[in-house]
Every structure is written in structure tokens, then in C-alpha cells.
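A student in our group prepared the protein record below, which I am reviewing. What it holds is a sequence and that sequence's fold in C-alpha cell form. My question to you is simply how this chain folds and whether the C-alpha cells agree. Do not assume that whoever made the record got everything right. I have pasted the whole thing underneath without changing anything:
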Amino acid sequence: SYYLLGEFIMLKVLFNIIKRIILAVLLIYAYNKLAVPLNLIIPLNFITIALVSFCGIPSILMLILYSLIFI
């Protein structure tokens, strides 16, 4: 019984991680669609997806600021 509960919790955590990754990809993609005329795109790679998955919207703002300053 406890074993099944542990598996359920692990599946819930895994589902939450996958959901955050998908949301990060969609957020970066949507931003890139809007920012193409301004030439301020954020590359869609492992690092940016991990940052946005972990930190959310503030990391997108940080990546925009980074692209404004250094690129």
C-alpha cells in the first residue's frame, strides 16, 4: 500500500515537471513569435528551457534583458 502511494507521488512529480517544460517551450515560442519584428528572439535550447521551467516568467524577462545588452 505504501509502495503504491510512493509511485503515485513520483508520477505526480514527474507529470508536474513535464508540464512545466511544455509550458516553458510554449512561452518561449510565443515570445519569439511576438519579438521577431524587434529582432529580440530567445534561442530555444536546453538552457533557456531549463531556466524558464525552473524560474518562470522572471527568467524570460532576464533573458530578454540579456539579449538587449549582450547581443
